[in-house]
Amino acid sequence: MLKGHLQIDLHNEITGEIKRVEQDNLVTNALGYVLGLAANVGAKGNNHFSDLLPAATKALGGLLLFDGTLTEDVNNVHFPMGVHLIGHAGQTANTASKLGGSINKAESGRTDTGYVNVWDFSTSQANGTIASLALTHTRAGENPFNGAQYDDGGFTTDRSYCPLTFDENSGVLYLYSGGKIYKKPYYTNIVKAYTPYLGEETQVFDFAFDNPASYYWSVMDGYDGYLYAVYVPTVTSQGTVSIKLRKVKISDFSFQEEAEQTIAVSNVTAKSTGDTDFYEQLNAVVSSGYLYFISYDENTLYKVNLSNTVDVTEVNFGNIRCRKIYPMRGGGVFATFEWTGTTSSGSTTTYGSPGVIYPDGKYRLNAESTNSVGYPQYYISHETDCLQRFRLWSNTLYYSFACNYLGTICNLSSPVVKTSAQSMKVTYTLTDAV
Q: What DSSP letter does each residue of 362-388 carry, written as one string?
């Protein structure tokens, strides 16, 4: 069992004043979950324990900072969408990012009873209100928007399966392909000779798409007990778009379908759900009761309240393009962003970064990214309660586990506000409790 202790030092670089905050924090079940998953997925050949242990520098070697409080529950392990990310850090140096801090190797290290990590944030990093902090995997600390850990191989199938949802009680994985939903038993047990593996498939539902054909529809888990199929036609100039929506119950895996809806949204443009035949690339989704779709020029995301469809919110990204989206647990969407930049040699190129768009319309991405990207290699993923992740990429179904989890939860008794006049040092001590 681990115990955590947090210390924050805010140093005013102008006046020299130092403000210190200290308190203990909750350790969640995330570490136990991912170690258990590592044992099972590693049975196929890849040993993920080397990426998780020692925990202090790997499985709990990253840091996330938020502007709101987190629910203090050992089972609250998923990346939160009800508060905004203010800063992050891993086990590397990061001087360019406005969000990312750097590990202080000189002051980090083993103690007599555990390990201490020290992270430094400059005056330009992690500015704003800090109300809570969490330890996470070092990979997520360095890039919190990439939620998948190492893939441990993929399943070879005769069709491109999109993972839709997973019944953790029965161990059944539900997949979408070509307008139909299939189920396959998913076997993981460390004492088996060969795991994980998928059992025989059974078709459980057919959308019977005919107007339009199946590849014009986006199908996803709305994280509200329903699967959704969405069709959006292309609207190139400001006008009204008529969106088709189909809803199928999965909270009890009955697959009962409700009547198809047509939703008219005026004064918008729209990028069609059928502009590509690759299931892993979505232009419209439903997430926790809201429909999201991308504008034709990709500079705007529209959010429609399905309980009141005249309630439409626009999220504008300026010169940044939102290429693809996918629903997140807790609301909002994961997104791939692109923008045009200039290289050191003066040539024009395309840069990109993954990011999140929160339910309230705020968004976060690595705006300093110099990763050159072409067409985004976006993927559909489904994340289970215990952090297992299934994803489709390049027509292969992979299994892995999420790494942007909440490994600890520390809500500050009083939030602190970091300004551009202050640098910050975060010291997180993990102790092996007896």
A: -EEE-TT---B-SS----EEEE-TTSE
pLDDT band of 432, cuts 50, 70, 90: confident
Dump pLDDT digits (tens) for 3-49.
899 999 999 999 999 999 999 999 999 999 888 877 765 544 455 67
Host H or E run for residue 52 = helix 49-52
> Residues 300-319: pLDDT tens digits?
999 999 999 999 999 999 99
For residues 121-128, give the mean pLDDT.
98
C-alpha span between 400 and 61 (Å, rounded): 19
Q: Is the pLDDT of residue 407 over 50?
A: yes
Nearest Cα to Cα of residue 325 among 335, 315, 317, 316: 335
The helix (H) or strand (E) run that includes residue 269 is strand 261-270
**pTM reported for the whole predicted model:** 0.92
Question: How many whole angstroms separate alpha carbon 263 and alpha carbon 71?
Answer: 35
> Residues 6 or more apart from 95 whose CB is under 8 A from it?
102, 122
Q: How many residues does the chain have?
A: 434
Three-point CA angle 318, 323, 324, nearest 5°: 130
Bridge partners, residue 219, by sequence: 229
- Whether the CB-CB separation of 4 and 429 falls below 8 Å is answered with yes
Provide mean pLDDT across the span 408-427: 97
Cα separation, 162 vs 48, whole angstroms: 24
* Closest C-alpha to 330, from 10, 124, 81, 129: 81
Nearest-CA neighbor of 416 among 72, 56, 7? 7
356, amino acid identity: V
Element (H, E) at 172: strand 172-177
Strand partners, 66: 85, 132
Closest among 54, 102, 219, 81 to 147, alpha carbons compared: 81
- 386 is written with which tokens? 């215990």
Q: How far is CA 123 from the centre of its chain?
A: 27
Please tell me what DSSP assigns to residue 276. -
* Contact residues for 178 (Cβ-Cβ < 8 A; gap 6+): 159, 214
Give residue 377's pLDDT: 42
Interior angle at CA 414, CA 16 and CA 118, nearest 5: 55
State the greatest distance between any 2 C-alpha atoms of the chain, in Å, as a whole number.
69
Query: Which letter, b or e, does each residue of 417-427 get, where b requires 16 or more Cβ atoms within 10 Å of its Cβ?
Result: ebeeebbbbbb
